[in-house]
Specification:
With 456 residues, the protein is an alpha/beta fold. The protein contains 18 helices and 17 strands. The N and C termini lie far apart (70 Å). 46% of the residues are buried. The structure holds flavin-adenine dinucleotide (FAD) and iron/sulfur cluster. The site of flavin-adenine dinucleotide has 41 residues, from helix 9, helix 10, helix 13, helix 14 and helix 17.
């Protein structure tokens, strides 16, 4: 039951990892859908978009062949509108709120229309915003993920010089390193980052990690240094560490963190990624779904997802669960990992059978162990039980936090004056679109903070 790779042909890998939501094939197809929009007053789709994109407006602009204007409307609210059109769980956001749902008719394919306009803007490098004259102000951002990039773009537009310090060798954060390859390709992520910095005034310094020294004993970046050299600092470091299961056998060969597994898929040729024959995935969030479906698409024979609660409490959406089911993944509800067994390598996963307990004061029923167990024969276990923040780093920086999640006030400020924060590092892990909005909020707060100095 050794872990194998190179299971499929190049064509099969290509097919398995091709775009899960293909774009409109023709302009007319986009027009037909755009013309179905009722351009609702007080549009519920806009209200349910965390970045408040004026959806009826951008759709109207498509119907009048004003594609540039349409892309401008989207980017004005969400500079990662192209990426979001591919990765947003729209079924619980804009499309889930479209009034057509109430008429039992298909919702307007808002994401597909958004992709239609924004992809054209990226392909043609339409820079739709002009950078204001330089203010001479400098802001350091740590992390080139959605929150950092969105903050940078707003600041750059306002004439602030931005330097982003990023520990990886590419920008985009989890868009580039975490989200399933069949949603966004590495090339798309690179194009999107290039488009965002294309406005000017944004420099990304790669392979620079806050709190870590550079090779050859050179001192790396510290918060104190950034505070000294810049007018303000924005921390957008996300949450990067996989939560451990804390059960026996976790260190056996073949036990893998979902983030590490997905990172490898994003950065290695598919045929070089090791995947088991019988894989168990622990968890039922977006990360678990992405890990399970990609394990299947890499050629695993059997993938079983194990979740300790019931379907009603699952953190992923119905659409995501359907993707896993359509890919042939097995689902076991009310099961918690108890022990991983093997001789050097994983051979079995022992799970406790759970049941829902009595409701607590909030009405929530937590799973309780029934005392019974069952065993799965597996050669790989992928842990996707959530991510935890960089607690040690946050504490080293003397930043107020809640178990590593940064605490900010209503002005997006941390406890340290001039140091702001947002995105997953603050909310503990939501969606790309939430991080983009956090970046906008952070930029607004920073502008308020540095502007009075400009008038001194
Ligand atoms: C597997 C997985 C799948 C997901 N799928 C989806 C999806 O389909 N749709 C969706 O909307 N959301 C999805 N998400 C969530 C989404 O990716 C995040 O909410 C979003 O990327 C958060 O943006 P951020 O900028 O706050 O953090 P991140 O994207 O994590 O970016 C943080 C950046 O900071 C850098 N960094 C960290 N520490 C340091 C340091 N010390 N010094 C310098 N740089 C540092 C990191 O390298 C990274 O580039 C998924 C998440 C995961 C893990
Ligand atoms: S709710 Fe649907 S129909 Fe109404 S504006 Fe939004 S997309 Fe158009």
């Amino acid at each position: 039951m050794a872990i194998q790779n190179n299971r499929l042909t190049a064509e099969q890998y290509e097919q398995n990892f091709s775009d899960i939501h293909p774009p409109f094939e023709t302009h007319n197809a986009a027009l037909v859908e755009a013309n179905r929009c009722l351009f609702c007053y007080d549009a519920p789709c806009t209200k349910s978009c965390p970045t408040s994109i004026n959806i009826p407006k951008f759709i109207k602009q498509i119907t009048t062949e004003n594609i540039k204007g349409s892309a401008h409307t989207i980017f004005q609210s969400n500079i990662m509108g192209a990426g979001c059109s591919k990765v947003c769980p729209v079924e619980k956001l804009c499309e889930g709120s479209c009034v057509y749902n109430l008429m039992d008719e298909p919702a307007i394919p808002i994401a597909k229309l958004q992709r239609y306009s924004t992809e054209k803007a990226l392909a043609n490098n339409w820079q739709l915003f002009e950078r204001k004259k330089s203010t001479g102000k400098k802001v350091a951002i740590v992390g080139a993920g959605p929150a950092g990039l969105s903050c940078a773009h707003v600041l750059a537009r306002e004439g602030v010089d931005v330097t982003i310090y990023e520990k990886e060798s590419k920008g985009g954060g989890l868009m580039t390193y975490g989200i399933a390859a069949y949603k966004v390709t590495p090339q798309f992520c690179e194009d999107e980052v290039n488009y965002i910095v294309g406005i000017g005034g944004i420099e990304i310094k790669y392979n620079q990690e806050l709190g870590k020294d550079l090779p050859a004993g050179r001192q790396g970046i510290t918060l104190a240094k950034l505070q000294k050299n810049y007018d303000s600092v924005y921390l957008a470091i996300g949450v990067g560490l996989a939560r451990q299961l804390a059960i026996p056998g976790e260190d056996l060969e073949g036990v893998e963190d979902a983030i590490k597994f997905i990172y490898e898929i994003r950065n290695t040729k598919y045929e070089k990624v090791n995947v088991g024959d019988k894989v168990a995935v622990i968890g039922m969030g977006m990360t678990a779904i992405d890990a399970a479906t990609q394990a299947k698409r890499l050629g695993a024979n059997e993938v079983t997802m194990v979740y300790r609660r019931t379907e009603n409490e699952k953190p992923c959406t119905d659409v995501e669960l359907d993707i896993a089911k359509l890919d042939g993944c097995n689902i076991i509800w009310l099961a918690a990992p108890k022990e991983i067994k093997g001789h050097g390598k994983v051979e079995q996963l022992v799970c406790s059978k759970m049941q829902l307990g009595e409701p607590d004061a909030s009405g929530r029923r937590s799973p309780v162990d029934t005392g019974e167990t069952f065993t799965l024969n597996v050669d790989m276990v992928i842990k996707a039980a959530g991510q935890i923040p960089y607690e040690a780093l946050i504490k080293d920086c003397a930043l107020n936090n809640n178990h590593g999640k940064l605490i900010i006030d209503a002005n997006q400020s941390t406890n340290i004056k001039g140091v702001f924060a947002g995105g997953d590092a603050v909310n503990g892990g939501k969606e790309v679109v939430d991080a983009v909005q956090a970046g906008k909020d952070g930029a607004k707060a920073i502008l308020n903070y540095i502007m009075p100095q400009m008038h001194e």
